[in-house]
Amino acid sequence: MNWKKEIRILLWITVVFLFAYFMPLESMRFREAIVAMFDLTKWYAQEHVILCLLPAFYIAGVIAVFVSQGSVMKYFGAKAKKWVAYTIASVSGTILAVCSCTILPLFSSIHKRGAGLGPAIAFLYSGPAINILAIILTARILGFEMGIARIIGAVVFAIVIGSAVSFIYRKEEKAKKEEQLNFPDIPEKRPMWHTAFHFFTLVLILVFANWGRPAEGVTSGGWYWLWLNKWYITTGFGFLLVFSLIYILKIKWQYVLVATMLTTLSAFISNSPMIPVLTGIIILSIITLIDKKDPDNKEWTIASWEFAKQILPLLAIGVLIAGFLLGSTHDETSLGGLIPNEWVSRLVGGNSIFSNFFASIVGAFMYFATLTEVPILQGLMSAGMGKGPALALLLAGPSLSLPNMLVIRGVIGTQKTLVYVILVVIMATISGLIFGRI
Q: Taking the model in full, what pTM does it have?
């Protein structure tokens, strides 16, 4: 008998029993925390799984199957120049309108394909932190100064944190580098522009499907026009995807035509844009799985499914815990968690080391959907939050969350995840202190 395993099971049973026995159902705060937990989970499922995560899984599948291991190593691996790898990784987030969870399948994919730990971590941080939509919204609502600080902080963070993690695990990276130096140059199966076209078509579908609404009262300008017409633009890129499936992936045009017709039909009979998106994803999965011409097409969907299996359960657990502890803050009718929001507001006033550190910790564990960190911060600043802690939360929050940490741990292990989280919190704290004194 494995006594350690049995004791661990006994401890979990004891914890669950004690929680159930002493559950404070009479407490209004506890009840609201329960409601907030399920409210955040419901909102996340409605707003982010279909439009954000499912396309992200397919984008990760493209990297895992269609982008050769040699290509990933060329730009992110041992053969790449460090300045090239870190530059690409630190600014790549500008084209991705993703949150700390949507970036995870992309990070997992490039890491598995041989990217160095440093560049992969830089990419993991920069993806949610520096997307162009969030930067513009930050500058517009929180001020130009905060927008510039966020850009500089995010790029510097990505490079410094990636380099630091690479240095800490330099022995492991050295061994990996030696293996990669002996890795033969395998020719690409298809021209690089074919893969790039297919990849960026999916990325642009993801970006415009999730294009955020402009600030309240804004009814003109480029941002408003793009938001107003985002589904027409997304549909345009959908037709480019049709071209890619036929011309690049060589899937039978009859299959693609039927898929297009069914997806279009679902758009006409439904009021929700999520229905045609989900319909398109389901049919895309079917036609790639039954395709006989190229085994990579089937493998693309299988790889996407593998990412979904790995990530979705951990995200669900993380979102439930985040909602229970910190509340559901996705709109103006936010619900408080077990930890009162007033405590947070009081603890992040001024520009002390503690207020910046506390803001970094709260940001690291709280879940922020794409662009939601800005209105939340606006509310906290109006309640007395200092500009230094505001930047600290802004730099730690979008790139980290409890769900995010649980998934990262499954990809790179507990120790490396702790190192990454600690570096983000320390850097955010220092940045907040400096910015608060300017």
A: 0.67
